[in-house]
């Protein structure tokens, strides 16, 4: 009777085990990436940098998302999108640069600046994870011979700044109005201006459109533009500027006399298409003295990616300086252990589909630049190399990562790689382990094969699934 029961338990156990094995097959592709070299993340030739965190949007991951920064030349307290450089950058902000957390250069555009005072800079963040995760960028400064690499076309799908002395593809279209004695335009002063007027007393109207076609891919966008009116006449009557996308108004301003205002709004495209941008200007004046010269200014027309809510500015780090460091971090005490809830064997040989936790002690010299990156690279049966990032476990005071479970009769080799902030690289020696098939038996060591062993096996596979 006992023999029959034991055979039945083993049969049921094998069915359970085959089910768990099928459920764990996806583990073999977890973390698969081409192995990449480690490199320094300090921008060579720059004396200072500050780290800044950008917290993601709950709407999802954002790729190549522009964010604005107010960079101040003088001293102050860094907060949200405002950072102070204590007079350590060029007065024209030409040495400002940006990188991501591992040293990749980020595109940027200086929208406007006041020398030795402030610059408004848009930075194209290559990757912002979903909230509550954040992305870290570095702002570099302190390179006296550097000149700006600011470029609006690398940051936005569309932008016009009027800095090159042309209207950059825009078309002016007269709508209606009183015949004016003369019209002048100027795109050479950092913005585009349009002036017109009579040289005798009169009531004058001026209706004009400013048009541009733009091809955009599907998605959500935000549009900004600065505009204002200028008056030379004695009397002024309220005026209006309208901003339209595909003939639909997204914003307007009234009577912004000599004060720059933002025209802005969002729109969404369900498919890639050519859209029409339009500014409509209505200028009306009453001149008792015939001064003339009434008109409008427009500047910095920008279309950028947009999500709602947008990523937000987080904390700023303290000012950092490069460290004279030519010694790589040291790797000590590399170990690995299985993740099974039961010690199936005393040895370090994992069972079928069982993940393996790899740990290592990685340290840099006391005056070194500090550990920047640690990874474990591994391959299976001498196939291509995979790698996964190791994270620091503050409880164990060790760097740790998990190698996914593999089928029985697999042979795995792995090594630890690390770099410091100065770019020095170190690799450990090669380690090896074998993966065995799990065989139903006296798994918990109580002297018999029973339902408790089946539960132990199920728990083993459940943990690795």
Task: Give a nutshell description of this structure.
The chain has 465 residues and is mainly beta. 8% of the residues lie in helices and 46% in strands.
Structure, explained:
The chain has three domains: 2-38 and 325-464, Immunoglobulin-like; 48-155, Immunoglobulin-like, CATH 2.60.40; 171-305, Galactose-binding domain-like (Jelly Rolls, Sandwich). The strands form six sheets. Strands 8, 10, 11, 13, 17 and 19 form a six-stranded antiparallel beta sheet that branches. Strands 9, 12, 14, 15, 16 and 18 form a six-stranded antiparallel beta sheet that branches. The longest helix has 22 residues, at 2-23. Residues 1-39 and 461-465 have low confidence and may be disordered. 8% of the residues lie in helices and 46% in strands. The protein has 465 residues and is mainly beta.
End-to-end CA span: 35 Å
Q: Overall 3D geometry?
A: elongated
Structural class: mainly beta
CATH level 3 topology of the largest domain? Immunoglobulin-like
Weakly predicted, low-confidence segments: 1-39, 461-465
State mean pLDDT (0 to 100 scale): 79
DSSP strand count: 29
> What count of helical segments does DSSP give?
2
Q: What is the percentage of strand-forming residues?
A: over 45%
Biggest beta sheet attributes: 6 strands, antiparallel
What's the Cα radius of gyration? 32 Å
- Fourth CATH level, the homologous superfamily of the largest domain: Immunoglobulins
Into how many domains do the coordinates divide?
A: 3
Please bin the fraction of helical residues.
Answer: under 10%
Q: Examine the secondary-structure arrangement and name the CATH architecture of the largest domain.
A: Sandwich
